[in-house]
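TASK: fixed-backbone design
INPUT:
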């Protein structure tokens, strides 16, 4: 049976439901520019009780506040961010690497190599000239130092990657701690029947940030906790407590990624995306390749020049003198004996002592090495080999830059799709606000009408 009190309760419940809906709408509008915020909606449901006449409506109730959320889109966004993180890290590191090989200045290695060969040609024009010998020794020293500096700069790139990896590990562990704490908050609130929407938004934002660093998969349990599993199958965040990443030096002196609980077991190979992947690729694959090429160049120059120089004769008649010392890009240097006495440069061939001063046989032979196919199985000259190395570095950088632009576009598109579902539209919220305002006013009118009815009944009793 419908009573006046029943109608009053209907008005009261409607008033409270519309008021809550207005509050949630205001929360959406207030967070229109908040990063990671997911718009919320009050679930309004009609209520009823059974009666002799059938189901009897008893008004409206607010049955929870829900996030407008697409789990698939958010998971896809994390995957896209992981891929972007890879190219972002590579792009930054390779930009530094390309700067090492820049040939825009007069001090580029390619130009110093050309000056080195030209110095031998100048010496061949006056094989006994002190000025030409001194210029050759100086230019040779500049070229050798340039090769060494380039090699050391590549070493520094690798050391920089170690520093970035260490920083990323610290950030990953910090994010894991925060996600785990949010798991606890979410589970506690939702087990008590409360909404944990804001905590969930914070957790999703942290997962996005984690995606920039490393690849992972995530899954949510029935109690609202999310588990984060890395590529090697071990849990970074879970229940029981999460694991912790660390670093450990390997045989090459660089840092491997390991679990704190297993410091002797590297997990580098399981890192397939994120900044860590990009830095590991640059440090362990790309830069070592550049260093190997530079080593080959230095070794062939040392071997080629020394072979001819030891077969030549110096001004003092001595023979068998190495022009370069060292065996690689990191150790190449001009023979200190030659730097102390440029007359030990063997410009002449094996001739009698009275002909040495005017003989330029070895100087000419060494200068011709510039155009000799000595590299890559006798298919490249020194210059073309080095230019190929520079081109390879530039190509790798352009590839990383192009891939980064593409993946940035992909992330933007996925994020736009997510925002179309979960983002706040001020136009839509303003329409909702007016709708709930009218609902609130109508509920208040119901209460006012019922109040007048009750007054009428009371006056009739009097």
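OUTPUT:
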């Amino acid at each position: 049976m419908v009573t006046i009190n029943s109608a009053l309760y209907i008005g009261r419940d409607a008033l409270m439901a519309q008021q809550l809906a207005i509050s949630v709408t205001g929360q959406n509008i207030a967070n229109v520019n908040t990063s990671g915020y997911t718009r919320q909606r009050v679930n309004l449901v009609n209520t009823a009780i059974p009666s002799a006449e059938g189901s009897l409506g008893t008004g409206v109730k607010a049955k929870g506040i829900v996030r407008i959320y697409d789990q698939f889109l958010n998971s896809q966004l994390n995957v896209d961010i992981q891929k972007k993180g890879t190219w972002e890290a590579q792009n930054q590191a390779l930009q530094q690497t390309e700067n090492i090989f820049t040939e825009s200045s007069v001090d580029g290695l390619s130009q110093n190599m050309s000056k080195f060969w030209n110095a031998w040609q100048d010496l061949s024009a006056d094989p006994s000239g002190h000025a030409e010998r001194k210029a050759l020794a100086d230019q040779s020293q500049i070229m050798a130092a340039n090769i060494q500096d380039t090699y050391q700069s590549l070493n520094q790139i690798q050391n920089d990657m170690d520093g970035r990896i260490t920083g990323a590990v610290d950030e990953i562990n910090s994010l894991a701690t925060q996600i785990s704490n949010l798991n606890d908050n979410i589970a506690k609130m939702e087990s008590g029947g409360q909404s944990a929407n804001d905590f969930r938004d914070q957790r999703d934002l942290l997962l996005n940030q984690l995606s920039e660093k490393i690849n992972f998969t995530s899954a949510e349990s029935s109690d609202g906790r999310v588990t984060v599993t890395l590529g090697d199958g071990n849990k970074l965040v879970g229940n029981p407590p999460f694991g912790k990443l660390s670093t450990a030096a390997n045989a090459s002196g660089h840092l491997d990624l390991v679990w704190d609980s297993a410091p002797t077991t590297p997990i580098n190979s399981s890192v397939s995306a994120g900044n860590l992947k990009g830095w590991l690729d640059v440090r362990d694959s790309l830069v070592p390749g550049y260093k190997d090429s530079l080593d080959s160049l230095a070794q062939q120059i040392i071997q080629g020049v020394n072979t001819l120089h030891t077969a030549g004769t110096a001004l003092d008649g001595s023979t068998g003198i190495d022009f370069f010392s060292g065996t690689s890009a990191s150790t190449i240097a001009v023979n200190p004996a030659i730097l102390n006495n440029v007359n030990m440069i063997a410009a002449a061939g094996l001739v009698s002592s009275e002909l040495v001063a005017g003989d330029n046989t070895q100087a000419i032979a060494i200068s011709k090495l510039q155009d000799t196919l000595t590299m890559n199985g006798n298919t490249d000259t020194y210059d073309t080999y080095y230019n190929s190395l520079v081109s390879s570095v530039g190509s790798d950088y352009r590839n990383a830059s192009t891939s980064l632009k593409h993946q940035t576009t992909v992330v933007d598109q996925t994020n736009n799709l997510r925002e179309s579902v979960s983002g706040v539209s001020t136009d839509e919220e303003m329409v909702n606000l007016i709708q709930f305002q009218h609902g609130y006013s109508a509920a208040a009118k119901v209460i006012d009408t019922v109040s007048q009815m009750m007054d009428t009944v009371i006056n009739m009793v009097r």
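COMMENT: The beta strands are 40-51, 54-67, 216-220, 226-230, 235-237, 245-249, 255-259, 324-325, 333-334.
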